[in-house]
Write a structure and sequence with these properties.
mainly alpha
Length: about 100
Protein backbone atom coordinates (compact mmCIF):
# COMPACT_ATOMS: atom_id res chain seq x y z
CA UNK A 1 0.00 0.00 0.00
CA UNK A 2 2.80 2.41 0.91
CA UNK A 3 4.59 2.09 -2.42
CA UNK A 4 1.39 2.61 -4.42
CA UNK A 5 0.46 5.65 -2.37
CA UNK A 6 3.97 7.04 -2.83
CA UNK A 7 3.79 6.64 -6.61
CA UNK A 8 0.32 8.18 -6.66
CA UNK A 9 1.49 11.21 -4.66
CA UNK A 10 4.46 11.78 -6.99
CA UNK A 11 2.24 11.53 -10.08
CA UNK A 12 -0.45 13.75 -8.57
CA UNK A 13 2.14 16.38 -7.66
CA UNK A 14 3.40 16.47 -11.26
CA UNK A 15 -0.15 16.68 -12.61
CA UNK A 16 -0.89 19.59 -10.26
CA UNK A 17 2.21 21.45 -11.45
CA UNK A 18 1.29 20.95 -15.10
CA UNK A 19 -2.28 22.13 -14.45
CA UNK A 20 -1.00 25.30 -12.77
CA UNK A 21 1.39 25.99 -15.65
CA UNK A 22 -1.40 25.46 -18.21
CA UNK A 23 -3.66 27.79 -16.25
CA UNK A 24 -0.97 30.44 -16.00
CA UNK A 25 -0.50 30.40 -19.79
CA UNK A 26 -4.14 31.26 -20.49
CA UNK A 27 -5.16 34.90 -20.89
CA UNK A 28 -8.04 34.61 -18.47
CA UNK A 29 -8.49 35.62 -14.88
CA UNK A 30 -5.87 33.65 -13.02
CA UNK A 31 -7.88 32.76 -9.91
CA UNK A 32 -11.07 31.83 -11.76
CA UNK A 33 -9.29 29.64 -14.25
CA UNK A 34 -10.39 25.98 -14.19
CA UNK A 35 -6.81 24.72 -14.60
CA UNK A 36 -5.56 26.79 -11.67
CA UNK A 37 -8.45 25.65 -9.48
CA UNK A 38 -7.83 22.02 -10.46
CA UNK A 39 -4.11 22.43 -9.80
CA UNK A 40 -4.66 23.82 -6.30
CA UNK A 41 -7.30 21.18 -5.59
CA UNK A 42 -4.79 18.55 -6.61
CA UNK A 43 -2.27 19.98 -4.15
CA UNK A 44 -4.80 19.85 -1.32
CA UNK A 45 -5.31 16.16 -2.08
CA UNK A 46 -1.52 15.66 -2.22
CA UNK A 47 -1.14 17.27 1.21
CA UNK A 48 -3.79 15.01 2.75
CA UNK A 49 -2.35 11.89 1.14
CA UNK A 50 1.16 12.90 2.20
CA UNK A 51 0.02 13.18 5.81
CA UNK A 52 -1.44 9.70 5.53
CA UNK A 53 1.78 8.35 4.03
CA UNK A 54 3.94 9.96 6.72
CA UNK A 55 2.09 7.94 9.35
CA UNK A 56 3.59 4.74 8.01
CA UNK A 57 6.89 5.96 6.59
CA UNK A 58 9.89 7.65 8.24
CA UNK A 59 10.39 11.24 7.12
CA UNK A 60 13.81 10.53 5.62
CA UNK A 61 12.27 8.03 3.18
CA UNK A 62 9.36 10.34 2.48
CA UNK A 63 11.71 13.11 1.35
CA UNK A 64 13.48 10.70 -1.01
CA UNK A 65 10.18 9.67 -2.56
CA UNK A 66 8.99 13.26 -2.96
CA UNK A 67 12.23 14.19 -4.72
CA UNK A 68 11.07 12.03 -7.63
CA UNK A 69 8.29 14.55 -8.29
CA UNK A 70 10.89 16.84 -9.93
CA UNK A 71 11.79 14.51 -12.80
CA UNK A 72 8.17 13.43 -13.11
CA UNK A 73 7.04 17.04 -13.47
CA UNK A 74 9.71 17.70 -16.10
CA UNK A 75 8.65 14.61 -18.02
CA UNK A 76 4.94 15.53 -17.87
CA UNK A 77 5.70 19.12 -18.96
CA UNK A 78 7.63 17.75 -21.91
CA UNK A 79 4.86 15.36 -22.94
CA UNK A 80 1.77 17.45 -22.16
CA UNK A 81 2.98 21.03 -22.60
CA UNK A 82 5.63 20.32 -25.26
CA UNK A 83 8.34 22.02 -23.19
CA UNK A 84 11.90 21.28 -24.17
CA UNK A 85 14.20 19.60 -21.66
CA UNK A 86 17.69 21.07 -21.63
CA UNK A 87 20.83 19.31 -20.49
CA UNK A 88 21.03 21.80 -17.64
CA UNK A 89 17.55 20.84 -16.48
CA UNK A 90 18.39 17.15 -16.59
CA UNK A 91 21.61 17.70 -14.67
CA UNK A 92 19.88 19.84 -12.04
CA UNK A 93 17.16 17.23 -11.65
CA UNK A 94 19.72 14.49 -11.22
CA UNK A 95 21.58 16.54 -8.59
CA UNK A 96 18.37 17.11 -6.61
CA UNK A 97 17.36 13.45 -6.62
CA UNK A 98 20.86 12.16 -5.83
CA UNK A 99 21.27 14.81 -3.13
CA UNK A 100 18.06 13.75 -1.44
CA UNK A 101 19.05 10.10 -1.59
CA UNK A 102 22.61 10.66 -0.31
CA UNK A 103 21.54 13.11 2.40
CA UNK A 104 19.03 10.63 3.79
CA UNK A 105 21.19 7.49 3.88
Amino acid sequence: MTIYLSIFIVLLTAIGQVLLKKGAQLNKRLLLNKYVLLGYSTFIIVILLSMLLMRSLPLKYFSIIISFSYPTTILFANILLKEKISQQTLLACLVVVLGCILFNL
